[in-house]
């Protein structure tokens, strides 16, 4: 008869052998992220650090970009094999794309100066506004938000500003309103001494735009709210949410895709930026909901290991 100690020792040995039998990824890979101080870039930095801390020979280097559209272009060209993107941008991609997992919720946030007379997107007719940095997924989705408000690009002046200059652009009147997508709070948009309008910023309620976008484009868009005091003395504000996906080229080795899933699951707490209050999707059941983008075979195998 086998003893309990022998049984437990056998289980441990089997687990060790199984781990050793899995291909161990090695090499350095760039991950296309987003603008510095934006949520995608911050998440990519944490993912790269977690890959290093996990040991082994897999290394990730963060490539800063203007956002989802540039990331998808880099993936299509083969310049990078891993990147982050808004789910709706991924759905519009014309080249093969595979998902590693859904990682967090992006909140569309449209800011105006606290003392601004504008209370809705529709109030911005005739104004200069930013729908996001050129090359960002926000700029693409921003047009949908604008149309859902009853306006067209002919009703406003589109003046793209980068996330890092949103506060200053609102202060100096470059734009009357600025839209971006990110986690909550987005560090670059937090008012601080020397940056931002006098009195701070206020977010516009986008709940009506959400209803129109959901009806036209489907459940990819979700109802979310930015909590009160996310950006100083701001009220809770309903808005539009869309998932952010970690995606890959079909050329990414299965072992690397699987290792990324392991990091997302095993080191989830290390991947949440400090002071974040927005929704995260770093558990197996949420990670696999990739908004219709097929999952990478290496990721599929890793999820089976974790969840059966």
Low-pLDDT segments, ≥5 res: 1-20
Secondary-structure element sequence?
HEHEHEHEEHEHEEHEEHHH
As a percent range, the share of helical residues equals: 25-40%
CATH fold field value of the largest domain: D-Maltodextrin-Binding Protein, domain 2
- Label the overall shape: globular
CATH superfamily of the largest domain: Periplasmic binding protein-like II
> Could you give the distance between the termini?
30 Å
CATH structural class of the largest domain: Alpha Beta
What does this structure look like?
The protein has helices spanning 4-21, 39-53, 68-77, 87-91, 137-148, 166-171, 207-217, 254-266, 284-287, 297-307, and strands at 26-32, 57-63, 82-86, 98-113, 128-130, 157-158, 177-182, 201-203, 222-226, 237-248. The protein is 34% helix and 21% strand. Strands 1, 2, 3, 4, 5, 6, 7, 8, 9 and 10 form a ten-stranded mixed beta sheet that branches. With 308 residues, it is an alpha/beta fold. Helix 2 links the parallel strand 1 and strand 2 (57-63). The chain folds into two domains: 25-104 and 244-307, D-Maltodextrin-Binding Protein, domain 2 (3-Layer(aba) Sandwich), CATH 3.40.190.10; 107-242, Periplasmic binding protein-like II (D-Maltodextrin-Binding Protein, domain 2, 3-Layer(aba) Sandwich). It contains ten helices and ten strands. It is globular.
